[in-house]
Amino acid sequence: MSAGEVKKEEPQFIFHTYALCKFTDMPDEMKQEAMETCSTAAEKYAEDYEQAARMIKESLDKRFGTPFQVIVGESYACAITHQENTLLYMFTGGNIAILVWRTVSQYK
């Protein structure tokens, strides 16, 4: 490299081989089960995020009651309103983001 050249820094990407919880307000028991369900679905349907989201939703609806909403993908942004103690935002398989929350089933 000559005196006038500037070395361009390459961005360093971090890939996690384990499930990484970025944010949650779920109770511990619910969080652990939701994270296990999400990781299993992401591994089983690695090429089909729609099927992974469907599996997660159906499993959480059965276990904790309806209506859960699920987003699975690699690059997205969102703004949501959720029921307290039902939000989970995590990463699994390196770069797969999973967002799970429960909406209010009845308005009073």
UniProtKB/TrEMBL annotation:
Its GO biological process terms?
microtubule-based process
- GO terms for CC? axoneme; dynein complex; microtubule
Subcellular localization(s) per the UniProt record: Cytoplasm, Cytoskeleton, Cilium axoneme
- Superkingdom per UniProt: Eukaryota
SMART domains in UniProt = Dynein_light
Metal-binding found in the keyword field: no
Alphabetic keyword roster = Cell projection, Cilium, Cytoplasm, Cytoskeleton, Dynein, Microtubule, Motor protein
Q: Which CDD domains match?
A: DLC-like_DNAL4
Which InterPro entries does this chain map to?
DLC_sf, Dynein_light_chain_typ-1/2
Tell whether Cytoplasm is among the UniProt keywords. Answer: yes
Family per UniProt? Answer: Belongs to the dynein light chain family.
The subunit structure is: Consists of at least two heavy chains and a number of intermediate and light chains.
What does this gene product do? Force generating protein of respiratory cilia. Produces force towards the minus ends of microtubules. Dynein has ATPase activity.
The protein's name is Dynein light chain
From which source organism is this entry? Vespula pensylvanica (Western yellow jacket)
